[in-house]
Write a structure and sequence with these properties.
The structure holds two protein chains of two kinds. Chain A has twelve helices and no strands. By secondary structure, chain A is mainly α. Chain A has one domain (71-264): MetI-like fold (Orthogonal Bundle), CATH 1.10.3720. Chain A is extended and about 75 Å long. Chain B folds into two domains: 1-55, no CATH class; 72-279, MetI-like fold, CATH 1.10.3720.10. Helix content of chain B is 74%, strand content 3%. The chains are: A mainly alpha, B mainly alpha. Chains A and B meet through helix 2, helix 3, helix 5, helix 7 and helix 8 of A and helix 2, helix 3, helix 4, helix 5 and helix 6 of B.
Chain lengths: 269, 280
């Protein structure tokens, strides 16, 4: 047998593939019933070319300006919202996640707090922002509070995993050495948790930064509001400079967060 | 211990390490703790952030009861409103289903083109990776609002947004797993004279298929949550209702919308978890 014949006779699960294909086709057919394609909107082509033009010819005056309407301030505000939101969320999540860990408190209390965490996670961040706006009024402060609350959900979920993985043998041996409670916490618990906690917070900062750019759409500060306004009023050069700033920001933050987290996980190389 | 100053990190050159003499006369260096420097940087950043965002806890203490009122209304959903939720809920599922399938299908060739062990052409590799990075960094709502301008308001715009978003994520996760596969079968096939595509299809595809499918399921799960808010910028689905209910301050209706979204997400989580456990 030549090589090509062997290649042609390689095992193929024909029936399984046909079945999967049919299921996918049925899913696509069912979904496409509800999705109406009305053709490209009248000015659709104009919008597309406008965005392309904006990306290639960004508005440099806005890009490097110093007023509160310009890109550097808005980016700084977005980072500030994400930073404060993550730190507050990370701090508030610590007591909640200890109270929701089955190896710290009785099961009943732990499940109660888990239900609270689930509720926080269920409501989308945009809805949280819209609800908080009624309390704080529009602005960056609303963004900070929204992100703090939303972060609690995911951060405590990852904290709980770390807390439930605690090696309690160390505490027993510290006990045997005659350590006080404070010493046990300082030398037995903190070193085990700090790396994973910090890693979680940095990861969440990465997510919050991306979220903070969209929260502006509902009026919660950051770059989103100005960007949506520029898109709706079709000032493509402005849209271009906002998009570039956003892309560069997210890529830089993602790079550093991945590097720092790799170092936290594997130690200094 | 060698004390080659030029190999030390900058920090240790500024803050000289402490020298400790052990009992047996050896000298070891103990680098200064970085903690004070990191703490100083973080605190400064936090202080600036507080100034920039106008953070003020008094507002929350003064008006916090407002939140309680709204939340208590959300937790008493208006059951009669469910009839109006069904349509947009199905739209949301449809948008995320078709967007996920399209995004995952398109993501496969892009992932192959951006994995460094298959595509040996450096410029095209960097080009594809840059495009993927750009796709992932533009927020979904911004993509949705642009595509709502291009394709008109409605579910189609949302589908396009989800497709682009899924493509970026699936392709990235997939090329990371393609780069870790065993390349020996692939090289063996190439040495027999198979083309790149034939070799990839027969030697690499079986290795990455389970990961590919589980990434796709994960994306579907994420897309349902994302699709639910896309309507806020006019791209169809539950978001329209969310926007409308909040605008009218009908928080009982909003509660019903959120409750049905919650049940939907739970069901989909359960189903995808089941299939994922079958895959691994």
């Amino acid at each position: 047998m030549s090589v090509m014949e062997v290649y042609e006779n390689r095992p193929r699960k024909l029936w399984v593939r046909i079945l999967i294909f049919c299921v996918l086709l049925a899913a696509v057919w069912w979904s496409s019933n509800g999705i109406s394609f009305n053709g490209i909107a009248q000015k659709g082509a104009e919008v597309a070319s406008g965005i392309f033009h904006g990306l290639t010819h960004p508005d440099l005056k806005i890009m490097f300006g110093t007023t509160t309407e310009d890109v550097p301030f808005l980016i700084a505000q977005t980072i500030a919202i994400a930073l404060l939101g993550t730190v507050i969320g990370g701090i508030v999540a610590i007591p909640i996640s200890f109270l929701a860990s089955t190896n710290v408190v009785p099961k009943g209390i732990a499940y109660l707090f888990r239900a609270v965490i689930l509720l926080i996670r269920t409501i989308p961040s945009l809805v949280w922002a819209l609800v908080w706006i009624r309390v704080t009024g529009p602005g960056a402060f609303c963004g900070v509070i929204t992100q703090s609350v939303c972060s609690i959900g995911m951060i405590s979920k990852m904290y709980i995993t770390a807390i439930e993985d605690l090696d309690t043998g160390i505490l027993e041996s510290l006990d045997a050495c005659g350590c006080t409670t404070f010493q046990k916490i300082r030398c037995g618990i903190l070193p085990q948790l700090s790396a994973s906690f910090i890693s979680t917070i940095i990861y969440r900062f990465d997510i919050n930064l991306k979220d903070a750019t969209t929260l502006g759409i509902v009026g919660a500060g950051g770059i989103g509001a100005s960007m949506l306004m520029a898109i709706n009023s079709r000032r493509w050069a402005m849209v271009g400079s906002f998009l570039w700033a956003l892309i560069v920001l997210v890529i830089i933050i993602e790079y550093f967060s991945t590097r720092i987290r790799a170092r936290l996980a594997h130690g200094r190389q | 211990m060698s004390t080659d100053v030029s190999k030390m990190p900058l920090f240790d050159r500024i803050f000289k390490p402490q020298e400790i003499t052990l009992e047996n006369g050896h000298k070891v260096l103990r680098p200064r703790s970085r903690m004070p420097l990191i703490a100083f940087c973080v605190l400064t950043a936090l202080y600036i952030a507080v100034q920039v965002t106008g953070f003020d806890l008094k507002i929350i203490l003064a008006r916090g009861n407002q939140l309680g009122k709204i939340l208590s209304q959300i937790f008493h959903p208006d059951r009669g409103y469910f009839n109006k939720v069904v349509g947009p809920l199905l739209d949301t599922i449809r948008m995320s289903l078709i967007g996920t399938i399209l995004g995952c299908l398109l993501g496969l060739p892009v992932a192959i083109a951006s994995s460094s062990n298959i595509n040996k052409n450096r410029p095209t590799l960097l080009f594809f990776r840059l495009v993927l990075a750009i796709m992932r960094s533009v927020p979904t709502l911004i993509i949705a609002s642009i595509s709502a301008l291009v394709f008109g308001l409605g579910t189609f715009a949302g589908t396009v947004a989800i497709t682009i978003f899924t493509l970026g994520i699936v392709a990235k996760m997939l090329f990371e797993s393609i780069e870790t596969i065993d390349m020996k079968p692939y090289e063996a096939m190439q040495s027999f004279g198979a083309t790149t595509l034939q070799a990839f299809w027969a030697a690499c595809m079986p290795q990455i298929l389970p990961t590919y499918l589980s990434h796709s399921l994960y994306c579907f799960e994420m897309n349902v949550r994302a699709a639910a808010i896309l309507g806020y910028v006019g791209a169809g689905g539950l978001g329209i209702l969310i926007n409308e209910r909040i605008g009218w301050r009908d928080y009982n209706g909003l509660g019903m919308v959120l409750l049905s979204l919650f049940v939907l997400v739970l069901i989909i989580d359960f189903v995808t978890d089941y299939f994922r456990s079958k895959l691994s």
